[in-house]
Design brief:
Blueprint (H helix, E strand, L loop, with lengths): L1 E5 L10 E2 L15 E2 L4 E6 L4 E6 L2 H5 L3 H4 L4 H4 L2 H16 L5 E6 L10 E8 L2 E8 L11 H9 L9 H16 L3 E7 L5 E8 L10 E2 L6 H9 L2 E4 L7 E5 L23 H9 L4 E9 L2 E10 L7 H45 L4 H6 L5 H4 L4 E6 L2 E6 L4 H14 L6 E4 L2 H5 L13 E11 L2 E18 L6 E4 L2 E4 L5 E10 L4 H17 L2 H22 L13 E7 L5 E6 L1 H6 L9 H15 L1 H4 L9 E7 L3 E17 L2 E12 L1 H51 L7 H31 L8 E4 H12 L9 E5 L6 E4 L1 H18 L5 E8 L5 E7 L22 H4 L7 H11 L3 E7 L3 E8 L13
Parallel strand pairs: 30-32
Antiparallel strand pairs: 1-23, 2-21, 3-13, 4-5, 4-8, 5-13, 6-7, 7-8, 9-10, 9-15, 10-11, 12-14, 14-15, 16-17, 16-20, 17-27, 18-19, 19-20, 20-23, 21-22, 24-25, 24-28, 26-27, 27-28, 29-31, 32-33, 33-35, 34-35
GO molecular function: phosphorelay sensor kinase activity; photoreceptor activity
Protein name: histidine kinase
Keywords: Chromophore, Kinase, Phosphoprotein, Photoreceptor protein, Receptor, Sensory transduction, Transferase, Two-component regulatory system
């Protein structure tokens, strides 16, 4: 089962329908005959090195039109200085055995138009391709070797070689320093080719992507194949129009080989990818491949919100950083594999030595420090011999285990004997033998079939885990089709998917470990003699467990906790086989006899009287259970009970199980929790009193304020009698101050009421479009509003929502008022209402004003916080407006986003959730 929660961020397309992306997998993106316009491209072929292909913009770089270049020798197409630079590069790539790329910097005196440029030459698919990128900036200074910088982060020979996330973070920081991109991410592929951002460095105010998962369809297979060939790709301007590549003569014939630009640095990209980047708000990208042992492990992905070009020297530095990170990934793998091999080697050797010493297989596989489940990193194990089976740790019921064994036997198609069942519950669940309530449920099963006659199977179980995957947008709706156009999804915000029924996948090394354990059993023991001896061996082991768990210590002497060994007999009855001194002290039972047998009987009676075993034990498997009881010696106590199964035997005679329970006194922690609960309740009560006080005092203040404002208007307008200019001026000041104080009281009331969370907004059916038009009409007649250009994108049809009219209207007016206040003369303000793709609505206010520094964006929604720059701090206001806006919108279940650039302006966006919005075209009853 899975549960999903979506938080859309970006507007959705209209008239679009979801679609499958399988057709995008077939798009030949390496044969796209277009390039990016910031450079030009020539293809050289034939003995005379003639130009067989040229981009349509060659004149802007070389000064000659395409017609004059196509079909001409290269020597006639390039200026002498540039030709002298290019010819050695062409010779080098032709001489190389494998496809190779060479680049060089062309100084201004050799360049065709007097501008420095960068030349890249490569050979691929039988063609030589020359790419020229003009550069108006000086060559970047040499940077330290990224390999050295990454290695220094962990230290030479560091034991912390497995700290990939830390190294990924440092690599992202280094690439951000090298390139200057707004966002740098370390992206890792999963086995199903979905990807996850494991590290990120971004500018403040940008939405975080770290921890988000992206479906495999976001990077189709042919794109991944290109990333293994071309280790770095740059898009300098997502919005730029691509330039076609023209062909000469025979190259235009239908049978001519298409131009393969797999290794091109200028190659344009799929329209689908361009729309994808636009939907993310990206204008420029750089992507470097992380190759580990010849396989695409992940990528370094850089995003920028403005067009950005980086020189080949910087690109090479990024490639080196990716290679350095790949070295650490490789070292991490080697470290993990070496450590795991050591664990398996030690476990198998220990298993063999114990069997060779004459110990029974049940004791060897189910108990001790090197159990089978420890070797295989599992939660439980099973050994089946004939019609008897023994399980240890977390395992299904005996009946369910037998169904799992039958499924494994049926699934052994190739006769290898090793079988993995990924979703065990589909095979074993019948409802006839439910597991104890709260017990962990085995879901993954790995089995080694040693023999079918007699039946001998060795197996391990892994319990189901709760997995939360945060996708960047809904992975089930990765694209939409609008007419003939395929567009990717437009929302990349977190979409949580929860899986509760799957265990961790069995890794490839588990197969080898199972085979080795099976070989040991075959080599040391005679399989024909194992089956009859299993019940006897298990009963003998159970007796030893009871002996080891005696009152004086042994098996259950753990950290001062109270413990007991409980045996469930074949008839279903339970008995306490052994207890610790702590167990006796916890229940303060005084024995009526001096011998151990009477002591156990008294303890058994005490536990039975408290109904501990019947009421708690079955609930305490897998998760602690808290219960309250009364101790004569220590009064009311709270204890935590945990139970786990040590061994289960099932044979034709019935089922026996040995469980260990552990009890811990948590009275102190429980009382602290109670005290914190009381403190929270008191704080909530104080907050309620504050809200009530503000409501009362505001009413008491608003009455005289209304009188003050009213009389000031009367005096200023002359209704109260003749008044000279000075009197009217003073009346205006008094009235303005009263209005300001009135607004402050309203904002403070809304902030207090909504911020407490216990006063939800009043639900009214509203037309949000009408409210926006009313707000727009009001703001444009305010003083100094005529100095700005106002534009409103509000749909004519009503947009019906549920919410509190006056509160939402004050929030919108606050945003418009801030835009008016902080936008210089001749600036522009835009108000927009948009329906999002999941039914939510967004109200956006965009201005061309002062903007907000990135370091201040985190504080602007806090009460009484104002900007620190003089241009902002000098404006009137108490700093309550944005705090009130956020409290109001969040009380409606929405959120407020902000994107701001100092000197360019800001965009504030209020998003109201789909649950408060009526579908388009419908009218509320």
């Amino acid at each position: 089962m899975s549960a999903r929660e979506r938080d859309p961020m970006l507007p959705g397309g209209r008239g679009a329908e979801p679609m499958d992306l399988s057709e995008c997998e077939a798009e030949p993106i390496h044969l796209i005959d277009r390039i990016q316009p910031h450079g030009c491209l020539l293809v050289i072929g034939g003995e005379a090195d003639r130009v067989t292909h040229a981009s349509a913009n060659v004149k802007t770089v070389l000064g000659r039109p395409p017609d004059a270049v196509l079909g001409a020798p290269l020597a006639e197409s390039l200026p002498p200085g540039l030709l002298a630079l290019v010819q050695p590069l062409i010779a080098a790539v032709r001489a190389a055995r494998d496809p190779e790329t060479r680049s060089a910097h062309c100084p201004p005196e050799q360049a065709p138009d007097g501008r420095a440029c960068h030349v890249t030459v490569h050979r691929y698919a039988g063609r030589v391709i020359v790419e020229i990128e003009p550069d108006g900036t000086p060559v970047p200074r040499a940077s330290p070797d990224p390999r050295t910088r990454v290695t220094e982060q962990a230290g030479p020979g560091s034991p912390d070689v497995g700290a990939l996330h830390r190294i990924a973070d440092e690599t992202a920081r280094m690439v951000a320093d090298l390139t200057g991109y707004d966002r740098v991410m370390m992206y890792r592929f999963h086995p199903d080719w979905s990807g996850e951002v494991i590290a990120e460095l971004r500018q403040e105010g940008m939405e975080p992507y770290v921890g988000l998962r992206y479906p495999a369809s976001d990077i189709p297979s042919q794109a991944r194949a290109l990333y293994t060939l071309n280790l770095l790709r740059v898009i300098a301007d997502v919005a730029a129009d691509p330039v076609p590549v023209l062909a000469a003569g025979a190259e235009t014939d239908p049978g001519a080989e298409p131009l393969d630009l797999s290794l091109s640095v200028l190659r344009s990209v799929s329209n689908y990818h361009i729309v994808y980047l636009r939907n993310m708000g990206v204008r420029a990208t750089l992507v470097a491949s992380v190759m580990v042992d010849g396989v695409l492990w992940g990528m370094i992905a850089c995003h920028h919100r403005q067009p950005r070009w980086v020189s080949p020297s910087v690109r090479q530095a990024v490639i080196q950083a990716a290679e350095a990170f790949a070295d650490r990934v490789r070292a991490h793998r080697l470290y993990i594999e070496t450590r795991r091999n050591q664990i398996v080697d030690h476990g198998v050797a220990h298993l063999e030595s114990r069997l060779a010493a004459g110990e029974d297989p049940v004791a060897v596989l189910m108990t001790g420090s090197e159990r089978l489940q420890d070797i295989l990193e599992s939660d439980g194990a099973v050994l089946a011999m004939g019609d008897a089976l023994a399980t240890g740790g977390v395992a299904p019921s005996p009946a369910a285990t037998r169904r799992a064994l039958a499924a494994a036997l049926a699934a052994d198609d190739d006769g290898s004997g090793v079988v993995f069942v990924p979703d065990l519950r589909r095979v074993t669940a019948t409802g006839d033998d439910p597991e104890p309530r709260g017990a962990p449920v085995p879901s993954g099963f790995a089995a080694m079939i040693l023999s079918r006659a007699p039946l001998i199977v060795l197996g391990a179980f892994r319990v189901a885990e709760v997995r939360e995957v945060f996708w960047a947008g809904d992975p089930a709706r990765p694209a939409v089709r609008t007419g003939d156009t395929i567009s990717p999804r437009e929302s990349f915000a977190a979409w949580k998917e929860t899986h509760e029924d799957l265990a961790r996948d069995w890794e490839p090394w588990v197969r080898d470990a199972l085979v080795r354990c099976g070989e040991v059993l075959r080599r040391v023991l005679d399989p024909r003699n194992l089956s009859p001896s299993l019940p006897e061996a298990t009963d003998a082991l159970g007796s030893r467990l009871e002996a080891m768990a005696e009152v004086s210590g042994g098996l259950m002497s753990i950290g001062g906790e109270s413990g007991g060994l409980v045996v469930r007999e074949r008839d279903g009855t339970r008995r306490l086989a052994s207890i610790t001194h702590g167990f006796r002290d916890l229940f303060d039972v005084v024995s009526t006899g001096d011998d151990g047998e009477s002591l156990m009987a008294d303890h058994q009676a005490a536990v039975n009287s408290s109904q501990l075993l019947d009421r708690i034990l079955d609930r305490a498997f897998g998760a602690p259970v808290a219960c309250e009881f009364w101790s004569r010696a220590r009064g009311r106590r709270m204890i935590e009970v945990v139970a786990r199964t040590l061994l289960t035997l099932d044979d034709p005679g019935g089922t026996r199980r040995w469980d260990m329970i552990s009890l811990r006194d948590i009275t102190g922690a429980h009382r602290s929790h109670e005290a914190m609960t009381i403190a929270r309740q008191r704080a909530e009560a104080a907050s309620d009193l504050k809200t009530e006080f503000l409501a009362k005092i505001s009413h008491d203040l608003k009455t005289p304020l209304n009188a003050i404002v009213g009389f000031a208007d009367m005096i200023g307008s002359g209704v109260a009698g003749p008044a000279d200019d000075k009197v009217r001026e003073y009346a205006g000041i008094i009235g303005g101050a009263g209005q300001h104080l009135m607004k402050l009281i309203e904002d403070l009331l809304d902030l207090s009421r909504f911020d407490s969370g216990r006063n939800p907004p009043r639900d009214e059916v509203l037309d949000l479009a009408t409210i926006l038009r009313e707000c727009g009409a009001w703001i444009t007649v305010q003083p100094k509003a005529d100095r700005l250009a106002w534009s409103f994108d509000v749909p004519d049809p009503p947009v019906w929502i549920r919410g509190e009219r006056m509160a939402l209207k004050r929030a919108i007016l606050n945003l418009l008022g801030n835009a008016l206040k902080f936008t210089p003369p001749d600036g522009a303000v835009h108000l927009e209402l948009t329906r999002l793709d999941d039914g939510a609505v967004a109200v956006s206010v965009t201005d061309s004003g002062l903007g907000i520094p990135q370091e201040e964006l985190g504080d602007i929604f806090l009460p009484f916080r104002r900007g620190r720059s003089p241009s902002i701090a000098s404006r009137d206001g108490a700093g309550l407006g944005l705090a009130m806006v956020r409290a109001t919108v969040e009380s409606h279940g929405g959120r407020v986003d902000v994107l701001s650039t100092p000197g360019q302006g800001s965009t504030f966006r209020m998003v109201l959730p789909a649950g408060r919005v009526y579908p388009a075209g419908t009218h509320p009853d």
